[in-house]
Design goal:
By secondary structure, the protein is an alpha+beta fold. It has eight helices and six strands. The protein has two domains: 31-97, no CATH class; 104-178, no CATH class. Strands 1-4 form a two-stranded antiparallel ribbon. Strands 2-3 form a two-stranded antiparallel ribbon. A hairpin with a 2-residue loop joins strand 2 and strand 3. The chain is elongated. It is found in: Mitochondrion inner membrane; Mitochondrion intermembrane space.
Amino acid sequence: MFSPFCSPEPHAGFKIAFNMFDADGNQMVDKREFLVLQEIFRKKNEKRGRKGDAEKSAQLSMQLYGYQVAPMNSRADESITIDTTLLVHFFGKKGKAELTFDDFYRFMDNLQTEMLEIEFLTYSKGMTTISEEDFAKILLRFTNVENISAYLENVRHCIPDEKVNYIQAHCFFQGTHTKNTSNL
């Protein structure tokens, strides 16, 4: 059912994201380039009014950008950057390693695969398949459509009661993120 969607092509969106970090265009991202773009995103979020108390701000910074600024000796003007697991993974313990597109793509692809697997397992409740309706719920989960229940009702009435296994779901999501979506 979903086999035409499977494709090993790199995702165009990942290349765009990588190129945003690669400020000097050398096809490598170093820690400095990564942190500069993160700082831009942080400032943009603050302008949107996502500020809170210092603890919430630090927690948001850790979640969104993979680093935290911690005060030293209780003096607010002196601080150090604490590298998170993500920064150490990308740039090594000393922060000197560089990130290639292939490494970035592999990381993002693995992350998306693990997130889909967790979501699939949530709906499958230990079984090897999920219903078409549950698959539709996964598709609609992060959309901005107003009446999700109407879409689910359509699935219940218009689509035969088929099952979707994890491999089919994974192939479908791989296909929706490739450059070549002409099969869709």
